[in-house]
Amino acid sequence: MPDVISQIQADDRRFELPDGAGTDAVHSDPQYGYAVTQLVTADRKHSGTGISYTLGGGTNLVRTAIELLAEPLAGQEIEELMADFGTVHRAMAEHHQIRWLGPHKGVIHLALASITNACFDLWAKSRGVPLWKLLLDLSPEALTRLIDFSYLDEVLTADDALSILKGKWSTRSEREHILKEGYPGYDTSVGWFAYSDERIMENARRALDLGFTAMKLKVGSPQPERDVRRVQKVREAVGDGVRIMVDANQAWSLPKALDVCRQLASMQPYWVEEPTQPDDILAHQAIARAISPVPVAVGEAVSNRVMWKNFLQAGAVGIVQADCTRLAGISEYLAVSLLATKYPVKVIPHVGDMGQMHHHLVFFNHIALGHEKLFLEYIPHLRKHFMFPANVQNGAYQLPQEPGCSTDLLPRVDR
Amino acid sequence: MPDVISQIQADDRRFELPDGAGTDAVHSDPQYGYAVTQLVTADRKHSGTGISYTLGGGTNLVRTAIELLAEPLAGQEIEELMADFGTVHRAMAEHHQIRWLGPHKGVIHLALASITNACFDLWAKSRGVPLWKLLLDLSPEALTRLIDFSYLDEVLTADDALSILKGKWSTRSEREHILKEGYPGYDTSVGWFAYSDERIMENARRALDLGFTAMKLKVGSPQPERDVRRVQKVREAVGDGVRIMVDANQAWSLPKALDVCRQLASMQPYWVEEPTQPDDILAHQAIARAISPVPVAVGEAVSNRVMWKNFLQAGAVGIVQADCTRLAGISEYLAVSLLATKYPVKVIPHVGDMGQMHHHLVFFNHIALGHEKLFLEYIPHLRKHFMFPANVQNGAYQLPQEPGCSTDLLPRVDR
User: Is A313 close to B282, i.e. CB distance below 8 A?
Assistant: First the structure.
């Protein structure tokens, strides 16, 4: 029976975090927030859940934007919709009036993210398969039709994407063993900015015990000595075999970034994340050159595929932290994943969704696009709010089995 | 008596346009919209009006964002507020949760634009002077304190800005004659995309009769021959002495832009505006190189001072169309105006405000910053909605005399 979207709901969900969790150099008192899209079928058999990620305040703006942008989906049959979703996606992004609030950025783009992700979730549920399997089972042609390639022409056309997908097709079986093995995670909750030195050392040791071999520390202190000292403390706690990443969350100006990054680079972090303002492509380029071979990581605030194209062309990024809850959903995430295959970079998503969609996507990216198997960010703070929280065993995400994108949230708890 | 902000109101105003007006290659059925901030003093003697510019749809999102962001202004005395407005501005832009909806772009940045402009309007009214006089009478130190220079350090610090302002101080009198002469305008309403060939020729001749010596034509047609033909038609209508600008409103991919721009460049337009997606700094750089010496113009969709810094550093722009209703208000407009003095570019604002604030600002920029005297965009369609519509005589904006920023709107007309 065809699954027709008959009801579109938008919601503003915000979640309190445990004391000190989620803090960084710029965000002192975060909540985690989701702008949620719910697409319900006429027979109420399926409900697609899409989320985009905020830090709490203003999520209501995204909720209202969802209501504005999702209107054309009412009455659409999900298979028909997804058969040429790239065109649908583009039409929503290019709404002739609303695009002036971007284009392709900020509140309206986050709304498009949530809507897009709800479409993918409904589609996968309608077919009764998890997202990773849905995507792996699509023909290269069908996959390419999910994506809006506009403004990427000189680097990536739909035909290029098709060639990339076809080129990797015959060797897929060599990579499918990860479906059994799981996909390694790295632990971000080790080193929130507000945590004491003692606490980050304790957390680091616990992460090691849980099987993680990579972990992240928030830096960007007004006193660079604090940053340096804390990297040393974590290194002491876990030894040389563990990868340590540092994340400044946009705290520095370029001159300051160059100064502190050079100090940090001498301690061989696996990457330096968000050293400065995320629109500043040329500043990132300068930092990347200064601290090479330590790579610069960015993504959670890179607005769209056009900005990504510029970052990649400029050699301003080494670790592509594309996030389908910050870009315009899975569709634009796939565009960036394809784009990245043309450059000497690693793709390691930022997980606004706490890894729920992204653990599907990294399995897909490795098998279908040949992306290097690395590790996916892991943040545990919202586990209790998801219906199917990601299953992480011995530091590795296990293959999800439930149909859809694993983004269904448990209902609000009345207090 | 001190002027204390006691009431903050936000509004969503949308204006119908005459048939075909405002149309371009991408926006087929525009309204003009303003997200309005109103700051009313405790004694109700003054009300500061701030606007940011949209194309209608979604203006309600900006209205709600104004309500969120403007909260800290309640109870503030206007002189105290403006004495260190750069710090206030930064605090609003860096709201630790809401900045995640940008940062510095989209709906929340447009809200900050409206709020900022309302602060300047209230300040000028409180002092009983027009904006241009308010700004010209400030010391370089006081002017510099209006601006958030963060993330500009390697190109422009507050100290650099001070030097620029002081350096131009002694020669101001050589430029003050424009206060009497007025500031030339150029006519954008000649060549909207939906107008017929006959109509644009007629409009062009009428613009010439009204004293305009420069005018704009919308291009970006799926058939480049239409674009080329229409430039020829306008040229025929007005002769060789008139400057013709062409504006594609982001219609082209880079390969298409290179192709069509080369054809158009041979017809010596005074600039080519918005050839492609406005985040695509490297594409603009490529186009600028390809069509030099014809300059590339961008601005109405360049989000913030950091993007401007990149455009300037990359040589990706020749005509800086910064707009204080699209950037975060007059404060960030001044930052970009200062930044631009360091590069071989011309500053010719896009006028989301129909020139109301910008005709104050171009007088200031010429006298205080030494910006070349050129011409300011003129669009007549909203004249009847402003309390003090700009006075344009013989193709030139006359110096406004009313206190404030000339942004007060007439009340809604009930139908």
Answer: yes
Is A373 annotated in the active site? no
For chain B, residues with pLDDT lower than 70 are 414-415
Interchain contact A23–B (C-beta under 8 A): no
B89, B125, B350, B359: which is the annotated catalytic residue? B350
**How many Cβ atoms are within 10 Å of B255's Cβ, its own excluded?**
14
Structure tokens belonging to residue A100: 């002036």
Radius of gyration of chain A (CA): 20
pLDDT score, position A357: 98
User: In angstroms, rounded to a whole number, what is the distance separating the alpha carbons of residues A201 and A237?
Assistant: 6
Contact list in B for residue A90 (CB cut-off 8 A) is none
pLDDT over 60 at A55, yes or no: yes
B272-273 and B243-247 strand pairing: parallel
Flag if A101 and B58 touch (Cβ within 8 Å): yes
Categorize the per-residue pLDDT at A28 as very low, low, confident or very high, splitting at 50, 70 and 90: confident
Out of A54, A58, A281, the one facing B310 most closely (by C-beta) is A281
Instruction: Give per-residue burial for A279-293: e unless 16+ CB within 10 Å, then b.
Output: bbbbbbbbbbebbee
Residue A296, burial from CB neighbour count under 10 angstroms (0-12, 13-18, 19+): buried
pTM over 0.95: yes
Q: Any idea what DSSP says for residue B261?
A: H
C-alpha distance from B155 to closest chain A C-alpha (Å): 10
Interhelix angle A329-340/A305-313, rounded to 10 degrees, is: 20
Cross-strand pairs, A216: A245
Q: Any idea what DSSP says for residue B409? A: B
* 3-class DSSP string for B369-400: HCCCCCCEEECCCCHHHECCCCCEECCEECCC
Q: How far is A101 from chain B (nearest CA, A)?
A: 5
What is the bridge-based pairing of β-strands B346-347 and B319-320? parallel
Instruction: For chain B, state the CA radius of gyration.
Output: 20
Active site residue A350: yes
Question: Looking at this protein, which amino acid is placed at residue A152?
Answer: L
Size (chain A), residues: 415
Q: What is the mean pLDDT of chain A?
A: 97
Contacts with B102 from chain A: Cβ below 8 Å? 105-106
Closest chain B CA to residue A275: B151
Cβ of A54 within 8 Å of Cβ of B101? The answer is: yes
User: Which long-range contacts does B138-142 make (Cβ < 8 Å, 24+ apart)?
Assistant: B140/B165, B140/B166, B140/B169, B142/B83
Interface residue B17 vs chain A (CB under 8 A):
no
Residues of A in contact with B97 (CB under 8 A): 27, 29-31, 33, 54-58
d(CA B283, CA A281): 13
Interface check for B276 against chain A (CB to CB < 8 A): the answer is: yes
Which residues of A fall within a CB distance of 8 Å from B55?
96-100
Residue B235: count other Cβ atoms within 10 Å of its Cβ: 18
Q: Are B375 and B184 in contact (CB under 8 A)?
A: yes
Q: How far apart are CA B98 and CA A30, in angstroms?
A: 10
ipTM: 0.97
Q: Quick one: pLDDT at residue A147?
A: 98
Closest CA to A362 of A325, A334, A401, A386: A334
Closest CA to B343 of B374, B377, B317: B317
Out of B61, B281, B282, name the one closest to residue A101 (CB). B61
Structural domains present in chain B: 5-128 (3.30.390.10), 172-397 (3.20.20.120)
Contact assignment for A309 to B282 by CB distance below 8 Å: yes
